[in-house]
Amino acid sequence: MIDFHGYGPSIFYGAILTIEIAFLSLFLAVVLGLMGAIAKISNNRIANAIATAYTTLIRGVPDLVLMLLIFFGGQVIMNNFTDWLYETYEIDVFFNINEFIAGVVTIGFIFGAYMSETFRGAFQSVENGQIEAGKAYGMSNVQIFKRIMFPQMMRHALPGLGNNWMVLLKTTALVSIIGLADMVRLASEAAKAVHEPFTFFIPVAAVYLTLTAISEWFIKKLEIRYSAGVIKG
């Protein structure tokens, strides 16, 4: 392992932490995105209104502000709640928001809003004729979703999904502002200590570039898989 004036091992573990945050945030964002998309195309007005409010709020507020709001604001809310528990029921508990969980939840929450729009457009791109054909063959709603809707939806969603993933990956650098020791924060501290910014920030940029290159390759593979049998015009 490259030493980097003794900071190499810590920056390496910071890179592992960044990757963990990225993948856990992606999982949460996909789940929230699918839920938001289904709510938006449903006939349920309440679900539709909640999903619309969610995407409007998240897309209108900068990611940095949301990160600070959820982490510091969430801690204040939890403290007020524990104070109320103690004063009312004499229950003495204390909750401390973990930086890692806060980072994952915030990034997943932000990109869930973007992905809900991606999935909504993809769901609406599936031709009704194919769904009606599935019903004519006697498929259940679950079978129609699994065999027709999801594969077709994924084919339309993958370009937008891949773009969101690339931005999400770079957004993980924001977790350094809430005190999480990711590779950006560790590289920044090391660069300040030895006054050699290029020594630390170029490898950090290389890690992000490597991850995005691997992601592009994987997304291309998925696009080929979900476009099987489709004639390109």
From TrEMBL:
Gene3D superfamilies: MetI-like. It is a multi-pass membrane protein. Its main location: membrane. Residues 15-219 form the ABC transmembrane type-1 domain. Keywords: Amino-acid transport, Cell inner membrane, Cell membrane, Membrane, Transmembrane, Transmembrane helix, Transport. One of its GO terms (cellular component) is ATP-binding cassette (ABC) transporter complex. One of its GO terms (biological process) is amino acid transport. GO terms for molecular function: transmembrane transporter activity. It is found in: Cell inner membrane; Cell membrane. The chain crosses the membrane at residues 12-39, 51-73, 93-114, 157-180, 200-219. It comes from the Bacteria. InterPro entries: AA_ABC_transptr_permease_3TM (IPR010065), ABC_transp_permease_HisMQ (IPR051613), MetI-like (IPR000515), MetI-like_sf (IPR035906). Belongs to the binding-protein-dependent transport system permease family. HisMQ subfamily. This is Histidine/lysine/arginine/ornithine ABC transporter permease HisQ. It comes from Litoribrevibacter albus.
